[in-house]
Amino acid sequence: MTITHPSNDPDLPGLIDRCLAGDQEAFALLYERYAASLYRLAYSVLLVEQDAEDVLQESLVYAFRNLRNYDPARGAFRTWLYTITVSRCRNARRRKWLPTVALSNLLSVGIEPSAPEDESPEIKAAWQEVREALGRALQTLSPRLREAIALRYGQGLTYREMAEIIGCPQKTAESRVRLAHEQLRKAMSAADRSALEELWSI
């Protein structure tokens, strides 16, 4: 049975239908298409590489096994995958205490904007200081607030999409991002806050 999928990706419906028919190449193509963004989301929430890799595998295995349960009328395929991934991240947090990670690894997956490539060494060094300050500040956030920041800035989702993924009203998603902003401001110096506000407009 062919399903119509509302998507900006014109070949996604065909890929999903091929997966449902047992086409292994289609499974591989879907994996390649979504694995990187799902890993970034998992790592942004968990901050541990191995746990993020485990969550990625668990999420995609679950998604592929339950592909027939995906209902395009209820939302985009990407949103469905993000919902599964956030759920698996929460399970991972409950299973064990996650250790603190090195600051050099904290923001390597896309939460923060990248420094302009053509800037001087001095500006790049200052940018790195802001990255590290942001890393320390992110570690002070609760898991739910870090989820909100990861979805909003790491994945570029709207508040409506965020609400659907984390299972809360849109106003709650907005308030979590706002609260995360407030806590990040408190955890950072005035100079670092000023630089970050220019980047994130917060």
Provide a concise account of the structure shown:
The protein is mostly helical. The protein has ten helices and no strands. The longest helix is centred in the first third of the chain and has 23 residues, at about 25-45.
Explain this structure.
This protein is mainly alpha-helical and 202 residues long. It has two domains: 12-95, Rna Polymerase Sigma Factor, Chain: A, CATH 1.10.1740; 103-200, Arc Repressor Mutant, subunit A (Orthogonal Bundle), CATH 1.10.10.10. The chain is 69% helix and 0% strand. It contains ten helices and no strands. It is elongated and about 55 Å long. The model is unreliable at 1-7 and 97-114 (pLDDT under 50).
Helix and strand layout, with pairings?
Elements: H1 12-20, H2 24-46, H3 49-65, H4 77-95, H5 103-106, H6 121-138, H7 143-154, H8 159-166, H9 170-187, H10 190-200
